User: Which sequence fits this backbone?
């Protein structure tokens, strides 16, 4: 690589741009919405290979198996209508395949979806693409898990009478 070093011995911005292209991201999208499958293909297709499982992402063992079988870098879970089950799936993925990134999308940003840090399912294309790219780099849903489980339990129970909300 020419001109990689500048006078102070540091790398120039040009040398960083001349590097190899980013590795393709292998994504697995799990959800029952065929229209969303088409959207995910359009949004994420340029990042790499995408596999789809047209089923509810509610069985942790199934999703974990599929993530491994597809050698997924990132799993995108459509939590619409099944937020509590998806929380358990995220936790199982963190234990079983600790280097897989997870992105959750949801049709309605319910309190349970917010606890999952879900993106709006039909939100900005760039937001989904960026989330998948970050998840591929970060590579683990485990940072999400402690907050996720506590918030989800609270959200599913509802507000405690006489107690101020933390939000």
Assistant:
């Amino acid at each position: 690589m020419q001109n990689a070093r500048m006078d102070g011995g540091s790398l120039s911005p040009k040398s960083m741009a001349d590097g190899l292209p980013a590795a393709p991201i292998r994504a697995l999208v799990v959800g029952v919405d065929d229209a969303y499958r088409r959207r995910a293909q359009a949004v994420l297709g340029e990042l790499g290979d995408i596999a789809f499982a047209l089923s509810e992402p509610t069985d942790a063992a199934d999703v974990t198996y599929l993530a491994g079988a597809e050698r997924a870098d990132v799993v995108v879970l459509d939590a619409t209508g099944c937020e509590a089950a998806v929380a358990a799936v995220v936790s199982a993925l963190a234990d079983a395949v600790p280097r897989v990134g997870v992105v959750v999308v949801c049709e309605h940003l319910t309190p349970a979806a917010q606890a999952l840090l879900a993106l709006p399912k039909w939100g900005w294309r760039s937001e989904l693409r960026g989330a998948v790219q970050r998840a591929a780099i970060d590579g683990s849903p485990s940072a999400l898990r402690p907050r996720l489980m506590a918030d989800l339990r609270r959200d599913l129970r509802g507000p405690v009478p006489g107690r101020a909300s933390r939000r």
About this structure: The helical segments are 13-17, 34-44, 60-69, 83-96, 111-115, 125-138, 145-157. The CA atoms of residues 116 and 144 lie 8 Å apart.
